Amino acid sequence: MSKQLITEIDGCINIQYRLHTNNPSTEAIINECMNHVQKIEEFNAIVNHYQQSTTTIIKKHYYDILFNEILEKLKKAGLSITINRKDIYDIVDHILIEMNCNNKNILPKKHKFLFIDLFAGIGGFRLSAQQAGGHCVFSSEWDSFAKKTYETNFMELPFGDITKTSKFIPKNYDLLCAGFPCQPFSYAGLKHGFDETRGTLFFDILQILEDTKPKMFLLENVKGLKSHDGGKTLETIEKSLRHLGYTIKWKIINSYDFGLPQYRERWYCVGFKEKIDFEFPSGNMRGAKLRNIIDLNSNMDNKLKLSESEIERINFHFSSNDNRVQHDNSKYHPNTKKGRHGVFSFQKSDGSLRFHIGDKAKTQIQEAFYTCQDTYAPTIIANRVPKLWDLQRKLSVLEAKRLQGFPDNFIFPVSDNQAYKQLGNSVGIPVVEAIIKKMLKSI
Ligand SMILES: C[S@@+](CC[C@H](N)C(=O)[O-])C[C@H]1O[C@@H](n2cnc3c(N)ncnc32)[C@H](O)[C@@H]1O
């Protein structure tokens, strides 16, 4: 067993493990460390976050984590060394050079606030918050494809599963951002705070808020959160956030009001540690059309083209003079809804084309929806890419980026299907940016 001596020398912690060998040189320590550091869980994320930090406090935070993780590994390996902070600095520098990731920090050193990016996806919150003058000091995302896209664009690998990595979050930041998955809560009596949320990812957000006490938070979720579980989910969320001492306000906001040609309604909730009067930005920028974001070169290879059967029924609709067109349903079994009630199409006043099952109010079930260049797109979600009847194709990845307000130079190092999914999970950039700017003005 090693005996550990910890002494303060000139402000440096000098940790000595007395074992059987002499003190090795710094170079030997570095070599030894390099054999072990790669085994550190979340090693790449720690190094990336260390390197991306532009403030001394945050840099020290990740430096300390790296320092402790390295020591832990050396201890586990039973190594006999004398090691101090200076050596660890050398080791960290060496690691950065080895990883060929020096000078990756592309952010301006000046920032207005620090934020953390939870359930980060591809970094929609990060992009918006950066555009509002923020500097990200922690990110977490567990999906490997989303992490790849995030790392490519922000030069930072997010930490993994938040239920295991929240211990790495620094304390000194101003804003917590999270577009969290919606899960039902159990109602163990009607208590306040954590009890009802335990076991859900929202509980992890609460715990992080309690541990790190940021000035503000911004949460995002689907519109359906409002009525989820008969309104009980939202009630619990509001109650538990207030229980932590936050003044909160939420609103359903539509991206279409913020200049995007997409009808995307989402639940946004802001919270402030201080009692603050806050009004959500109103947007007032309705009217964007898909025509503004269409890239006419997108479908050169025809890979975005609708299927032949879709094109056939769209053409059939426009060849008829009827307002509501009945389509041939003989291919459907009479016992199916389509067979029983028939399939109809109808062009709405904004130009979009809707296919539905049944013609009576009661039987009408939307079956397909095609938008067109003269109007907006329906909400892009993970497994649904908007389709246009007038171009007879779905949107390209470039157009889907524009639909969410991402810049054209945002890179997707993944398949197109993954890119659509990631964009569908993300947020409307101008919406989040406007909310954060308004939050900053309020404090
Ligand atoms: C609705 S998406 C948020 C997307 C993000 N706002 C963006 O701009 O791309 C929720 C994300 O949470 C991630 N997630 C779910 N559970 C997680 C966990 N335990 N730890 C980390 N990330 C998680 C999912 O992989 C998904 O990317």
What this model shows, in words?
Helix 1 (26-37) packs across helix 3 (56-76) and helix 2 (43-52) runs antiparallel to helix 3. Mean pLDDT is 86; it is low at 1-21 and 101-106. The protein has helices at residues 26-37, 43-52, 56-76, 85-98, 124-131, 144-154, 162-165, 201-212, 232-243, 308-319, 337-341, 397-403, 416-425, 429-442; strands at residues 3-9, 12-18, 82-84, 113-118, 134-139, 175-179, 216-222, 247-254, 262-263, 265-272, 324-327, 343-347, 353-357, 365-370, 377-378, 387-388, 393-394. The strands form five sheets. Strands 5-4-6-7-10-8 form a six-stranded mixed β-sheet, with helices on both faces. With 443 residues, the chain is an alpha/beta fold. The chain folds into three domains: 3-98, no CATH class; 113-283 and 428-442, 3-Layer(aba) Sandwich (Rossmann fold), CATH 3.40.50; 290-424, DNA Methylase, Chain A, domain 2. The chain binds S-adenosylmethionine (SAM). S-adenosylmethionine is lined by residues 119-125, 140-143, 146, 161-163, 179, 181, 201, 425-427. S-adenosylmethionine (SAM) binds at residues 119-125, 140-143, 146, 161-163, 179, 181, 201, 425-427.
